[in-house]
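Morning!

This is the sequence you dropped in the shared folder:
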Amino acid sequence: MSSPPQSWARAHLRLVLACGLILVIAVVVTTVLILTRRGHQPAPVPLGLYPAATIPLPGDSSRFDYASLDAGRGLLFIAHLGASQVIEVDIHTQRVVRTITGLPGVHGVLVLPDRHRVYATATDANQMAIIDEDTGTVLGRGPTGAYPDGLAYDPQHTTVWTTNETGGSETILDATTAAPRGTIDVGGEAGNVAYDPTTRQMLVAVQGRNVLAVIDPATATATITRRVDLPGCDHDHGLTIDNTDRLAFVACDGNAVLLTVDLNTWQVIDHHPVGQDPDVLAYDPGAHRLYVAAESGWLTILDVHDRRANVTGSGHLADGAHVVAVDPGTHRSYYPIPHGPDGHPALLSFDPAS
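The structure's back. Tokens below.
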């Protein structure tokens, strides 16, 4: 049998090389994306935190979620998601006060000291629960949308808003009775919600669209008045407000970036890399300091001066330390983790260097 013509052989070789090059490019791109999204952390910067205390927590070593502090009474409420409980800790005596049960898959928790009430999203039941802060008694429950997560309080209308993550909506509930007052479709999977006390509007991170929805609760149907594009953000989830400087901070867990949004102009004015899978944000208004806790256990600290955020600390704090709460009086920060120094759940607390 005669050999194939040289022109055919050359064409075949070129085809094989082209296919091989495409395969190599695909592998490289996939690897880069995986490393960018899951493996890469920002350059470490000393956190400038000093250990203050380690408080043992009850229950198993399952996942924690949000935490909320009544700074005046020194009571910290922690959502122990995996145990379907809220743990109440006295940060002054460094002891657990009580464990509040019957909250299936609890995610969000919000204490309102003036009302002596605690609100929690029982995610597995698609409910919000009202809890007596003084006794730990569950006083009532109200229906939400699918997968309620974060919470925010509207003092003008005495309502609590739940952000329904997979439901793509916000449920508005009466803060006294938990009766539903309305539901707002935000147009995509919902991240966190925050109340802006200056404009008396609600801000919602619509993580399915990479936008910030601005909602006016004063209208009869609580209308979305503005949608703010978030360029450079993939999956905006975490959200908190610096009302003094009129800034919103948005954590994008898809690409590990923190955006600062000017609430006067609705423009993104800066962005910073943070730990992989950023989750909970806590802002200390007295210190002008923002804490960004990530699922990877990486903590990023930013100081705000002249309406600009600058990274002052970045590093691995502890495995599972994706929840943070801060005391605005003492500036001490708190982090519940599933595995403390002895392998059991613990609440870590730290004081800043300055």
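Headline: The helical segments are 6-39.

More detail when I'm at my desk.
O.
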